[in-house]
Each structure stands twice: as C-alpha cells, then as structure tokens.
Amino acid sequence: MSQDTTLPPLAASSRILPATTYDAILLAGFGGPEGQDDVIPYLRNVTRGRGIPDERLEEVAHHYRHFGGISPINDQNRALKAALEAEIAERGLGLPVYWGNRFWAPYFADALRELHADGHRKVLVLVTTAFSSYSGCRAYREDLATALAETGLEGELELHKVRQYFDHPGFVTPNVAAVRSGLHQLVESDSGAQPHVLFATHSIPTAAADLSGPREARPDGTAVPTGGENEWHAGGGWYVEQQRAVAALIMDAVGDEFPGVDWSLVFQSRSGAPEVPWLEPDINDAIEALPESVTGVVISPIGFVSDHMEVAWDLDNEALETCAERGLAAVRVPTVGIDPAFVAGLVDLVEERHVAREGDSPRERVALTALGPWQDVCPTDCCLGRAPKPTVASA
Ligand SMILES: CC1=C(CCC(=O)O)c2cc3nc(cc4[nH]c(cc5[nH]c(cc1n2)c(C)c5CCC(=O)O)c(CCC(=O)O)c4C)C(CCC(=O)O)=C3C
Ligand SMILES: [Fe+2]
C-alpha cells in the first residue's frame, strides 16, 4: 500500500496523549432494537431533538419490522466484545471490557455505573466508528459526558478515547481483502466483467461534512474537499477526505490483481428534510449513472464496522435491487466485523495508549495514509456545528 504523499500530516502532535495505565476498556456502540416493541422507542431515542419527519420514522421502522424488530447491531457488538476480551487475554493486558450504547440498552450510563461499581476509575473508550464526523465521533463524546453527569460520576471516572482508526491497518487490511474477494467473485462468474467499486458510507448534511474534524485547512492553505465531485469548501471536510483516502488506498492495494478498476465514494441512508443538502450521490443514483461499459459492481460499506441494519436494508435490499434492475452483477462485501485483523488492530490501538506499568513504552502508532495517525483528543470545536455540549476526550 502506498502512502498518499500529496497531503501533509495533520498537525496533531499537541493532541497526542502520553500512554498511561488504564483500568478497563469501554466498547461504545450505537445500539439497536431487539424486538418489535423496541422499534419506536429506539427511533425516538435516535432522533431526539433532530426534527426527523414522522414519515421518515415510519419508513425506518418498516426496515426493522421486516427483520422482526431486531437490529443485528447489538449481537455484533456482543461478538466484538468477546473477541476483544480473547485478544486482550492472549496479550496479558489485564483490561476488562465493558459495553454501552448511545441509543439502546445497555446505555452508556448503565456501563459507567457498572465500571464504577467494579472499582474502575480510568477507562479507555473504543468507539465503533472509524471516521471523523459529528455522528461518528463528537456525538459519542458528548453522550459519554452526558452519561457522566447523569450518573453523578463526573470526577470519579476518567474517560479517554482511542483515536479514529480509518487508516489503521486493522481497519484497512480486512477491507482490502473484502474488495479483492468481491472483484474475484465478479470476474469468476464473468471473465469479461468490467467492474466498478462503490465505496458506500453514511450520508450526512453537507454542513456537517464541512465542519467534520478539526477546523484547520491543509497546511498549504488550500481547503479540504467535501461534498460533490470537485466541490471545494473552506474549513473541515475530513469526513469525506478520510474516506476518499482509504478508498484510494484499498484500490491501490488491489491494483496488483485488478489494475485500473474505476471506483467512487457514494452515500446512503439519507434522512432529514429534503430541502437540506446532504452528501451525494446517493448510491442508487450512482448505480443508475454508471457508464454502459460497466457490467458489475462491488459494494464495500467502508463507512461502517459491522453489517448492521443500514447495510442489511439500504445495501442488501435497496442497492442490490437497483443493480438487478440495471442488469448489473453485484457483490456486497462484508464490513470488518470481527475479522481477526480488525480485532487485533483495535487492541494495537489500545496498546498505543495503555502500558502495563507507568513508564513502559507504548506500541508505535501506525497509519497508512498521510492524514494519520489521527488525534487522541479533539480540539473543542472539532465536528462542532451546533450549540456546544460538554464532551469527553477533548483538548
Ligand atoms: C455518520 C453516521 C453513522 C456512522 C457512524 C456510526 O456508526 O456511529 C451512522 C451509523 C448508524 N446509524 C444507525 C441508525 C440510524 N441513524 C439515523 C439517523 C442519522 N444517522 C446519521 C449519521 C450516521 N449514522 C445522521 C446524520 C442521521 C440523521 C439524524 C441525526 O442527525 O442524528 C436514524 C434515524 C432514522 C433515519 O433517519 O434513518 C437511525 C435509525 C445505525 C444503527 C443501525 C442498526 O440499528 O443496525 C448506525 C450504526
Ligand atoms: Fe445513522
């Protein structure tokens, strides 16, 4: 995999924390419903205060209802927790793993009470999202701060967070393997296939994309790109920038066997009012607009770490149907899930921050793009596009 040398590294050195000895790990997830009766209360939790139209809630409720009201995400996080425990035990790190969610039980507050009751005071949080955005980073940090306040554990529990890991080998390597295997599947079923790789990620409002990550522009003074193709905005824009960089890295890595395959970064699961601009193109529009020469697509859900409802519904149901209507062969490849390389990578990230004894050397920080290694703590206005709330893990 080559490094992207066109982008100077983020000036993050002041946002790197010295390694220390932690008491426990908190796996911080999104949460999902686990039965029909959970669906509406869950959707109300997710959309609280956001003005998501009721029709949209009904539409999303239907996705969950179709699967018995059960999102796969909680079981996926239970499996990830177990895999992390096994890897941590194997390395003798002596860190118990707790699990809490933003939007469904066990909630962050439940996990914090449990951590505290078990005598832990210094906790390293692992978030189940790889990229920088309000929804993928700041919202987790805000909700953890809210849970600290709600439980009265401010000043009792110290919460630090592992950096966003979009360009860590633990995240990139399984995605490379998945895209490679998807391309093999297409070519095996049709030796003359002209494939196109679609990297799918969650759409967010373009305003939130512009404000994602720290505010600085590239050190050469040019703005960071975001939004539509070749559209440039001042300010942040790291959400799109990070995903483009990882997609380019993956395509570069599979280029040994599949040179010159076209790819694009596309967006899914848009919500909110129609007049508010969100990142485009939508994956279904992108499929419709593929050139006639393309005969097959590989869909890589790069924006997610497990095959949860957004993947099961928006990709396996809708996007694959759009491909079928266009007569395109299509393979949706898996997210990192509990791939051993991903689990090992997360524990490597823990070991950048955690040492068995104060003074021991932490693990070296690795990153496969010039954007990283990403910051351990965020500046106070990182991903901030609304009224500020207290956060954890900020500078
Ligand atoms: C960037 C991003 C990620 C990736 C980072 C991360 O993983 O955190 C993500 C993940 C997820 N999003 C999920 C589910 C939902 N997201 C919604 C709404 C929204 N997501 C947004 C963004 C993101 N979302 C945004 C800007 C909104 C609009 C409302 C708002 O500003 O908050 C809604 C409301 C209804 C709707 O409008 O769709 C639901 C139900 C699930 C669980 C799936 C399951 O249950 O298996 C997961 C993992
Ligand atoms: Fe979402």
TrEMBL record:
Involved in coproporphyrin-dependent heme b biosynthesis. Catalyzes the insertion of ferrous iron into coproporphyrin III to form Fe-coproporphyrin III. Keywords: Cytoplasm, Heme biosynthesis, Iron, Lyase, Metal-binding, Porphyrin biosynthesis. Fe(2+) binds at residues 202, 310. InterPro entries: Ferrochelatase, Ferrochelatase_C, Ferrochelatase_N. It is found in: Cytoplasm. Belongs to the ferrochelatase family. This is Coproporphyrin III ferrochelatase. Residues 210-233 are annotated as: Disordered. It catalyses: Fe-coproporphyrin III + 2 H(+) = coproporphyrin III + Fe(2+). Its main location: cytoplasm. Pathway: Porphyrin-containing compound metabolism; protoheme biosynthesis. It comes from the Bacteria. Fe-coproporphyrin III binds at residues 71, 140. Its EC number is 4.99.1.9.
